[in-house]
Amino acid sequence: MKKITGIITSLNEAHNIEACIRSLQLICNEIIVVDSLSSDATVSIAEKMGAKVVLQPYLGDGIQKNIALQYASNDWVFSLDADERITAELAAEINALDLSGKSNYDSYAVKRKNMIGSRWVKCCRWYPDYLVRLYRPDKTRFLEVKQHASVPAVRMKKLSSAILHYRYKNIGELFAKPERNYSSRGAKILYLKGKKANALTPVIHGMAAFFVNYFFRGGLFGGIDGLTLSLAIAHNSYMKYAKLLEYQRDAQVLADENFDKVW
Question: If 127 and its partner were Cys, which of 115, 122, 182, 221 is the partner (CB 3.0–4.6 Å)?
Fold first, then answer.
């Protein structure tokens, strides 16, 4: 096993955290969970699994992930979300790497297999979905942004194996989960950046998102999952700009919104 620190950010992930940690233990000798004050058993389960838990109110995607770096004792870290798993094939590939100081690389990207239920969905940029997850934090780290954070590739190599991402339990969550989380978060971030919307903005963005994903990113060839995913992405885009417009046109909605809380 390599000297790699596994990093997980969590919020009410009691149903996921044990399996996530167990998969990281295939490659990591240290695991740190940065928990956003979960109200379920996430923290106790993580601690029983041997992980070090850091309690931190949620600051945003990239910022939250980087919190763990100050507690890491290894030169390399692997970042994994609670609903992701390292496969045996990826573990074998990583354990075979030369991660010594003489390594020619400072970061490694892995493929991600995004799942709906037990179905692996490849369209709409859901595969291979390469992401830098194994990296040296003294060379690179997550961008400190609140949404869609990624690790910049620095002397990067792509690995051939993949992680599993249990993204949605069913197609119903394609609409419910983005509506509950991502569109509101996106609208808040846009508003705080001073972005403006008009009556056509939600429609234009929603239609464009569907057209691009269904016709140019393979949704057309993904069967009912491809169509549903394209519609869900379009719906999320529409709602993000509709909510932004609502902040501009309804003073009461704006006053009731908590912009200090990302979710």
Answer: 122
